[in-house]
Hints:
Strand content: 25-35%
Shape: elongated
Number of strands: 15
Low-confidence stretches: none
Radius of gyration: 22 Å
Order of helices and strands: EHEHEHEHEHEEEEEHEEEEEH
Distance between the termini: 31 Å
Helix content: 25-40%
Oligomer: single chain
Structural class: alpha/beta
Number of helices: 7
Mean pLDDT: 93
Amino acid sequence: xxxxxxxxxxxxxxxxxxxxxxxxxxxxxxGNGEVIYYESYGSEEALLPNFRKYDLFLIxxxxxxxxxxxxxxxxKNRGAEGKIVLYYEKIDYRAKYRDEEGISFIPKPLWQxxxxxxxxxxxxxxxxxxxxxxxxxDKDTLYVTRxxxxxxxxxxxxxxxxxxxxxxxxxxxxxxxxxxxxxxxxFLITSGKSVINMNHVVASSGNSFKMxxxxxxxFSIWDKKAITRKYExxxxxxx
Length: 239
């Protein structure tokens, strides 16, 4: 199991101390098969592009007009699914704002035992989250559920991915790496160039599938028997 933790603290000394304690806890758990990733940020702006992947946010912001609670609420409104913990010294967030649903509070300084409990909290949060697939583009990164992916087509140096909500995204990867990323029996490779999410097939005819967005994904007639058989097995399993 791997968990992802974001440390956002605009006090460099406090941030460095938290990094040291997180590193110790990460190394101590490595022998138990627990994989802990943490990334450290000094500003809200640096965190935002990647916030969807984290299971735990540890936040204290005091040097700007937006404090830690404002950042935490904004993360929630943007759809952050990780547990948010405000740790504090200069600003007592609970006293200033009172309790906020989904946000916990812990005073500084934090000790090793505190980080042990925080990582346990991150692990419990991760267990309840729907897994997300990371789609890395040329400039941006998306985190989506597998069910949001309709199909993907190989264009040489990138995969064109069709998503729910009439969205699309170019992922800078190849067919093999993309299929390793999605890693699910719900997906079917129809050719060396296309892979579909069988949950989004609305019709099967001849050597093609019609997808929920209206797209028609064709495959070779020579592969028809094997491909339609795989789809039939999947469809029967959903009944």
